[in-house]
From TrEMBL:
GO terms under biological process: transmembrane transport
Entry protein name: ABC transporter permease
Cellular component terms per the entry's GO annotation: plasma membrane
Membrane topology: Multi-pass membrane protein
Species this chain originates from: Lysinibacillus sphaericus (Bacillus sphaericus)
Residue ranges of coiled coil: none
Keyword Transmembrane helix found: yes
UniProt family annotation: Belongs to the binding-protein-dependent transport system permease family. CysTW subfamily.
Gene: cysW_1
Cellular localization per UniProt: Cell membrane
Length: 277
């Protein structure tokens, strides 16, 4: 048996890690957002809430996050349903590949898309050669290009989160529904989807938070040419013109509040959905 003292000794490195890399930066960010050279102030938050450009960044980030999360969720729902019809060895290989793909993000992902779909990318040149007008007019450095990249790195995460949910749908339920005369569509509408709904809502909240906090891919692709809240924070910290870490901290706090609010709404929806089952 492990004593309490031994358990605390094992937990000490983890607690130090949480303290140094989570709690201390969080407290520093909060303190900085409420301070300036004169002391305590709310000027940063007033600037954020009255600055049209920063509010536009929040709007763009929210729109991009919601749309990419919804598209990734819908595509993955059908993809995971198809995967469940494969044999177990094939499923394991797909999950391994998905796990590897989920780590392909940030600057390497943006560079890969530039090589393929940039102004002189492989597919872009092929589209021009084949005179495919609808595709040759596509710009990777626009909102649609950002959306494509966001969907790409959302898909593996959504698949890994949704696969256990599908796996929880027991074969006995389908057989019992079939014996009672229910069709496949009726089973999913009456049993499958209601059982999976809490997990789907939770997955959406994770995808939303994942997209809201994404920075490297968007910055590598557009630099500071597209207004996203994460890019605004980075620009204010590094100082494109001059550094404003206090304002960046205030934006980061509001971004964190937005993400936490989304998670709380998701948790409330999950509890409400489970209460109806």
């Amino acid at each position: 048996m492990i004593s309490k003292r031994q358990s605390f000794a094992w937990l000490t490195p983890f607690l130090l890690l949480v303290l140094l890399f989570f709690l201390v930066p969080l407290l520093y960010m909060l303190i900085t957002s409420f301070s300036n050279s004169e002391g305590f102030t709310l000027a940063q938050y007033k600037s954020v809430l009255t600055n049209t450009y920063i509010l536009q960044g929040f709007k763009n980030s929210l729109t991009l996050s919601v749309i990419s999360a919804v598209i990734a969720l819908v595509v993955t729902l059908f993809a995971v349903y198809a995967i469940t019809h494969f044999s177990q060895p094939v499923r394991e290989k797909i999950l391994i590949l998905t796990n590897l793909t989920s780590n392909f993000s940030g600057i390497p992902l943006a560079f890969a898309f530039i090589v393929l779909l940039g102004n002189s990318g492989l597919f872009t040149l092929l589209f021009d050669k084949w005179e495919i007008g609808a595709l040759s007019s596509f710009s990777l450095y626009s909102w649609s290009g950002l959306l494509l990249i966001y969907i790409y790195f959302q898909l593996p995460l959504a698949l890994m989160l949704l696969y256990p949910i599908y796996d929880g749908i027991q074969q006995q339920w389908k057989e019992a529904a079939a014996l009672l005369g229910a069709s496949t569509l009726q089973f999913w509408l009456k049993v499958g989807i209601p059982v999976m709904l809490p997990g789907i809502v939770g997955t959406f909240s994770v995808l939303f938070a994942n997209a809201m906090g994404a920075y490297a891919s968007a910055y590598a692709l557009t630099n500071s040419n597209y207004n996203l809240v994460a890019i605004r924070i980075g620009a204010l910290i590094k100082g494109d013109i001059f550094a404003q870490p206090e304002l960046a901290s205030a934006i980061a706090v509001l971004l964190a509040v937005t993400m936490v609010t989304a998670m709380l709404i998701s948790e409330w929806s999950i509890k409400k959905t489970r209460g109806k089952l």
